[in-house]
Write a structure and sequence with these properties.
The protein has helices at about 5-65, 70-80, 160-195, 200-210, 225-280, 290-320, 330-345, 365-380, 430-435, 440-450, 475-480, and strands spanning about 80-85, 90, 100-105, 110-115, 125-135, 135-145, 150-160, 325-330, 350-355, 360-365, 390-395, 400-405, 455-460, 465-470. The chain is an alpha+beta fold and about 475 residues long. Strands 9-11-12-14-13 form a 5-stranded mixed beta sheet, covered by helices on one side. The longest helix is centred in the first third of the chain and has 62 residues, at about 5-65.
């Protein structure tokens, strides 16, 4: 059952129950008040009749000049009581007519009967009760009086059939009205619910689209109520899911590319090693010079594999290991790295111009040394023999900025965004001839990100490149 159907049925039942309960309570109270009034009236009429009858008996005794009337005389006297057309009780006597002070309404009457015996039975006291007689409902007020040495029963009754008929009619009318009002209220509420729950339908449609893979689907949000807030949160969730899916897809593509490039980079040296090893195994009449040549090729390719595997392990370690950073002087670290690299520069007849400031950062010394050496190695490979390499370290906007500048061939603008990808090489043939593997800048980027820094590459074709690394600067107070 749908939500709107549940709300409709629940509202219809509750409204009908409330309306019927209220109308029944009001009708019952009104009926009870009417019965109380009828009881009071019948009591008043009964008391008035007893009082008037007592006066009549006294007057009859005075008229006859006797001390006590006989039962027969009382019966004769009572037989002369009549009810006129206006409901007035009057007495037909020997002289002028004497009317009762009380008046009785239509449907009311009086019954007087003699009780046997001289003693009043306990069960024959004054009482008021409702009785049903011949399909009619009457209220009866009966009391016992003592006249002339005898007990008489005076009973006054009033027909309440019309009152109870009105009650039944009012009850049926209220039931119909309650049903009509309940149905009308439920219909109005149903229309309101269907209008107000339209955003929920849009949410349902949105979840179906998103569940079906349409992560770019968004809900049109109106208003500031709870459903609008839920819709906004749904859109935010869809955006996060879409971003996460794209990130996962991009990561999967990068991994596929990484694996494909790694397989390609491993295939070339392995092919050379296996090929020359087979030649050395098959060829029996090989002279010493040829054997040395083949062995040198195998050694060079094996060294390439060693360097490549070492850098790959370093790259994986950086991404999966939490670093312990310690304060250190980046200027001194860069100076030591330049001293280690100086023999390689001398071999290529390149000189390094340096301008280093003593700036402190929090870093892993081994990784930061590897970063500087990789930047120098890339600059050297991009430079021609005899060219100059510039290394600077300076403070800029609260960061220690280490820049390595070469004046080599440069990198095309279209390639700048991809040079930090693993195994990506702008000039593959030249890079391999220089002993490159395409992992250096990817490793540098991973090291910088692990130190909460940033790496920027600028290049000008034919005029060289500059790689800048910015690391958070550590203040003197923090060092202390």
């Amino acid at each position: 059952m749908r939500l709107w159907q549940k709300i409709f049925l629940l509202t219809l039942c509750l409204t009908a129950l409330a309306a019927n309960s209220i109308s029944l309570a009001l009708l019952t109270r009104n009926q009870s008040d009417s019965l109380v009034l009828a009881k009071e009236r019948i009591g008043t009429v009964c008391d008035g009749a007893v009082r008037e009858l007592g006066h009549l008996i006294q007057e009859e005794k005075e008229a006859k000049g006797c001390l006590m009337l006989t039962e027969a005389e009382i019966r004769v006297m009572l037989s002369k009581i009549r009810l006129d057309e206006n409901g007035q009780l009057f007495f037909i006597g020997s002289g002028e007519d004497r009317s009762f002070q009380g008046a009785m309404q239509e449907g009311e009457g009086i019954v007087i009967s003699a009780l046997a015996g001289r003693l009043l039975p306990k069960a024959e006291g004054t009482r008021t009760e409702l009785v049903e007689k011949e399909g009619k409902i009457q209220i009866r007020r009966a009391t016992t009086v003592f006249w002339e040495g005898r007990f008489y029963r005076v009973e006054v009754y009033s027909d309440l059939s019309e009152l109870f008929g009105w009650f039944r009619e009012d009850l049926v009318f209220c039931q119909w009205m309650s049903g009509t009002v309940s149905l009308l209220t439920a219909v109005i509420l149903l229309c309101s619910i269907l209008y107000l729950t339209r955003p929920l339908k849009r949410l349902e449609v949105a979840t179906e689209h998103i569940a079906g893979g349409e992560y770019g689907y968004r809900i049109h949000v109106k208003g500031n109520d709870e459903i609008a807030e839920l819709s906004r949160h749904m859109n935010e969730m869809a955006s996060e899911v879409e971003t996460s899916i794209r990130r996962v897809e991009e990561l999967a593509r990068e991994r596929e590319t990484f694996i494909a490039n790694m397989a390609h980079e491993l295939k070339t040296p392995l092919t050379s090693i296996l090929g020359f090893a087979d030649i050395m195994t098959i060829k029996s009449n090989m002279d010493e010079a040829e054997r040395r040549e083949y062995a040198a090729v195998i050694s060079a390719e094996a060294k390439r594999l060693k360097i490549l595997s070492s850098r790959l392990m370093e790259l994986i370690t950086i991404q999966e290991t939490a670093l312990i950073l310690r304060p250190m002087n980046l200027g001194e670290l860069a100076e030591r790295a330049l001293e280690v690299f100086s023999p390689v520069c001398a071999k290529r007849q390149c000189c390094v111009q340096r301008r280093l400031q003593p700036l402190w950062v929090e870093a892993d010394e081994a990784l930061l040394t590897s970063l500087v050496l990789n930047l120098l190695d890339n600059a050297l490979k991009a430079s021609l023999p005899g060219q100059e390499i510039g290394v600077t370290l300076e403070e800029r906007a609260g960061s220690a900025v280490l820049a390595v500048r070469d004046y080599g061939t440069g990198i095309p603008k279209a390639e700048l965004e991809r040079v930090t990808e693993a195994f990506y090489m702008v000039d593959k043939a030249r890079s391999r001839s220089e002993g490159g593997s395409g992992v250096g800048l990817a490793l540098c980027k991973a090291i910088v990100e692990a130190h909460h820094g940033s790496l920027q590459i600028e290049s000008w074709e034919g005029r060289g490149s500059r790689v800048s690394v910015a690391l958070p600067l550590k203040s003197l107070q923090e060092k202390a």
